[in-house]
Amino acid sequence: MPTRLTLALLAALLSPLAACGGDDTDFDGDIEETGEPGMMGRVQEMQSAVEKMQESAERAPAEPVNFRVLRELLPTSVAGMDQGEVEGATDGAMGFSISRVEAVYPGDGGAQIDIGVMDYGAIPSMAMMGLGWTMADIDREAGSTYERTVTFGGNRGFRSYDADARSGEFSLVVADRFHVEVTGSGVSDDDLEAAVRAVDLSGLAALRDEGRPDA
After folding, report:
1. Which of 21, 105, 117, 140 has the fewest beta carbons under 10 Å from its own?
2. What Rg do the C-alpha atoms of the chain give, in angstroms?
3. Beta-strand runs (E) in 134-166
4. Which 3 state secondary structure label does DSSP give 145?
5. How far apart (Å, rounded) are the C-alpha atoms in residues 5 and 203?
6. Nearest CA to 108 among 171, 169, 191, 1?
7. pLDDT tens by residue, 170-198
8. What is the SS3 string spanning 87-136?
9. How many helices (H) and strands (E) does the chain have?
């Protein structure tokens, strides 16, 4: 499990896209679909991304929060499945450090939900470039599968689900710094959403400036 999120960091440093998060951290509301934008929408997205990159360049990098702090923000159970194995660490890659924590929630009949949280605090926001959905609006359907970008609490997200396989993903970038990734198999789409909501996202957003020298 740790390998997947560590590889995400490496991909982030090689991709041409930039992450976009929000300052509105109300996580009690609805999850909104972004839809497929027109040409003006794409221009506005690009302009917003450039502004985000400029803000990131001006913002002092932060030391990542201890993974034990991230671990406390994970739910003890989701969709009737209790928390199982939890792994966490602060790793170095290409001269940078990141904190990550991952938990497994096993269920009956092979069902399972995995929740991972990664802190990119030591790297500017552009370090999450590997998450292509942070800039491009997506709205796709094929057979029993859909993929779409969303916003939740003003933060950019991505969700996909295969109804036949009963498997999917729900990811969210919080405070231009944290990547929350929920994946599951043998579960419903609603279960994945419930897992995202079960993470203490407000507590995560409150750590936006944690470890910054000017905070």
Report:
1. 140
2. 17
3. 139-142, 145-152, 155-162
4. strand
5. 21
6. 191
7. 999 998 889 999 999 999 999 999 999 99
8. EEEEEEECCEEEEEEEEEEECHHHCEEEEEEEECCCCCHHHHCCCHHHCC
9. 5, 11
Question: pTM value?
Answer: 0.77
Structure-token pair, residue 169? 């993903």
Locus of tokens 């919080």: 174
Please, which residues have CB within 8 angstroms of residue 33's CB and are 6 or more apart in sequence?
Answer: 139, 148, 149, 150
CA distance 210 to 167: 34
Residue 168's alpha-carbon distances to 124, 144, 171, in angstroms, are 29, 11, 10
Q: What span, in angstroms and rounded, lies between the C-alpha atoms of 15 and 138? A: 17
Question: CB count, 10 Å around CB of 163?
Answer: 13
